[in-house]
Amino acid sequence: MFTGIVEELGEVTAVETLDDACRFRLRGPVVTQGAKHGDSIAVNGVCLTVVDHEGDEFTADVMAETLNRSSLGALAVGSRVNLERPTAVGDRLGGHIVQGHVDGTGEILDRTPSEHWEIVKISLPAELSRYVVEKGSITVDGISLTVVDAGRDHFTVSLIPTTLALTTLGIKKPGDPVNLEVDVIAKYVERMLGDRVADEGVTR
């Protein structure tokens, strides 16, 4: 489990394209501290498994399913990425519960800077819109953010200077893709209520 609090801005150092997958090599001095084979590291919000680790770099394999559901397929050598290690039991939950399982991708639509923050408008797939609510939580490229405005096909977030300086959302432009993970609690509530309604319909 992750919390959506990015630990560092890493970099893709190598990309190997396979028949139905990709192998990425990424640099991250912070997240590689103590890393070992089999550990999990979130890359732009996608939970990946460490295959190899040497110095401040690690290697991770990405299956076709992940490439199809996320924006990782657009990464190239030199791409900057948000990195986060899993939270440890007993640590503070700084953001919200993040699984590292991307639900879909959005696109940066617009950026509106102001003196102390920046409003970013992001497109929202129709199948995810019911899970996104004003002042609710959403993960964008692995960053735990609060929804400012929730529309049918878009939402906005307000970014403070720290987020702009230390994550990919500080450098992404309109048209760039982002990974989205909605609040898992909303999905569980929907499922439980749906099952309850179905059961009541049968008994009646």
Distance between the termini: 40 Å
* Helix run count: 3
Number of strands: 12
Largest sheet data: 6 strands, antiparallel, barrel
Rounded Rg: 18 Å
Question: Percent range for helical residues?
Answer: 10-25%
Order of helices and strands: EEEEEHEEEEEEHEH
Pathway: Cofactor biosynthesis; riboflavin biosynthesis; riboflavin from 2-hydroxy-3-oxobutyl phosphate and 5-amino-6-(D-ribitylamino)uracil: step 2/2
Pfam family, one: Lum_binding
Catalytic activity: 2 6,7-dimethyl-8-(1-D-ribityl)lumazine + H(+) = 5-amino-6-(D-ribitylamino)uracil + riboflavin
Domain Lumazine-binding: 1-96, 97-193
Features:
204 residues; alpha+beta; 12 strands; globular; repeat; Riboflavin_synthase-like_b-brl; Lumazine-bd_dom; EC 2.5.1.9
Could you explain the architecture of this structure?
With 204 residues, the protein is α+β, with helices and mostly antiparallel strands. The protein is 16% helix and 40% strand. It has three helices and twelve strands, in the order E-E-E-E-E-H-E-E-E-E-E-E-H-E-H. The chain has helices at 64-69, 161-166, 184-203; strands spanning 8-17, 21-27, 40-43, 46-54, 57-63, 80-84, 104-113, 118-123, 137-140, 143-150, 154-159, 177-182. The mean pLDDT is 91.
Which helices and strands appear, and what pairs or packs with what?
Elements lengths: L7 E10 L3 E7 L12 E4 L2 E9 L2 E7 H6 L10 E5 L19 E10 L4 E6 L13 E4 L2 E8 L3 E6 L1 H6 L10 E6 L1 H20 L1
Antiparallel strand pairs: 1-2, 1-6, 2-5, 3-4, 3-6, 4-5, 7-8, 7-12, 8-11, 9-10, 9-12, 10-11
